[in-house]
Amino acid sequence: MLIKSLTMIDFRKYELASMDFGAFTNILHGENGAGKTTILEAIHSLAYTRSFKTRLDADLSRHGQVGYQLKGVFTDHQENDHEVRLKVESARKKLVSVNSKNLTSRAQIIGRFPLVSLTPEDSELTFGSPEIRRLFFNKLLSQVDAVYLENLQTYARILKQRNALLHSYANDGTPIDRIQMSTLDDQRAKISAQLHEARSKHIAEFKKLLFAAYAELEDEKSLKMAFISNVRSTAGELEGLYRNAYQDSLAEDMRKGTTTRGPHRDLFTFYLNTKDLRKFGSQGEHKLVLVAIKFAEGRFLETFLGEPPVFLLDDLFAELDVKRSTMIVESLKGGHQIFITATDLADLRHHGLELEGDTLQIIDAGKMQANG
Ligand SMILES: Nc1ncnc2c1ncn2[C@@H]1O[C@H](COP(=O)(O)OP(=O)(O)O)[C@@H](O)[C@H]1O
Ligand SMILES: [Mg+2]
């Protein structure tokens, strides 16, 4: 996949800007505040209908404006062009079209324009709460498995209904409709078992790619990863196990006013030399694991979608030594379109990026504005 061109209207600081991209390395150059990250956000918003920084379209609309528009032309590996348009008219109205065909759900676009983004916010992936890792893996798996995405959405709907019942019971004593609760939990058990199976299967594949990617960056430490469900899967048929677990936890859930067990509480944990990375890892160790996760993400998408993803690398070299940066740049250069932000071109050169040649394009983010 590659993106050939982008137009932004009233998107953050850009009133109107259009640009073309090169098929290989694109350097987004400019001082702080020039608008480099915004260009990456625009590309991400087109591919996934939302930014990696915020879910609030109001934040993305240029100050003083209600709404924004984006247009991008993507080309797949078979050289078919796809024009994606995103138009936000108000807080509630977002229209997305691919080749002039309006989409009716996000599911219709997820997985079609694969991107791997590495931004400063991503440090949360290894430093942050379990929720962040669940979101990461949900996004990744949704792109290669449409049933997984559908199940996630159904699960979220059931969970919301169930939590509403529990919440009213715990807060103002509204009696629980037992029949409704048991219907919800039967449905939930069925979906949970499917999510569980899909996670186990996909994570096993992901782990192989992750460990290989990490070993390329660091050969002295060993990285491990676990997918930990709060419902044991050692014996018996999964749906039955979930049904029992949900019956067993109902009393506790009623007391707490929320749903304590299920895939929405699954854990994805990284270990470096058998120690929990989140608790014991140094800054540098976190960054290397993060880069390995992103490499693995790219290879996972490429393997299961048959389409090489575009890499959006914001501030890639922060906290990376020159040796590692050079390795990363070398390994990405073959066959992927990549975007790298830079305030200082000399710094890129220092980190192993050659700035000459016809595979590289430098875009001056600060000069993209049509009206200066
Ligand atoms: N909704 C918005 N409307 C107008 N300007 C914005 C909006 N959101 C962010 N900005 C401005 O855009 C600039 C940040 O752009 P950004 O892409 O993060 O720059 P860079 O990555 O080059 O440092 C800042 O000057 C910020 O004030
Ligand atoms: Mg930035």
Question: Can you tell me about this structure?
Answer:
It is a single chain. The protein has a six-stranded antiparallel beta sheet with strand order 2-1-4-5-6-7. It has a five-stranded parallel beta sheet with strand order 8-12-13-3-14, sandwiched between helices. Strands 9-10-11 form a three-stranded antiparallel beta sheet. The protein is 45% helix and 22% strand. It folds into two domains: 1-114 and 307-372, Rossmann fold, CATH 3.40.50.300; 126-306, RecF/RecN/SMC, N-terminal domain (Glutathione S-transferase Yfyf (Class Pi), Chain A, domain 2, Up-down Bundle). The protein is α/β, with parallel strands linked by helices and 372 residues long. The chain contains eleven helices and 14 strands. The mean pLDDT is 93. The chain has helices spanning 36-48, 57-60, 124-127, 130-144, 146-172, 178-217, 238-256, 277-280, 283-305, 322-333, 345-350, and strands at 2-11, 14-20, 25-29, 68-75, 81-90, 93-98, 101-102, 115-118, 223-228, 267-272, 275-276, 310-313, 338-342, 360-364. The site of magnesium ion has 4 residues, from helix 1.
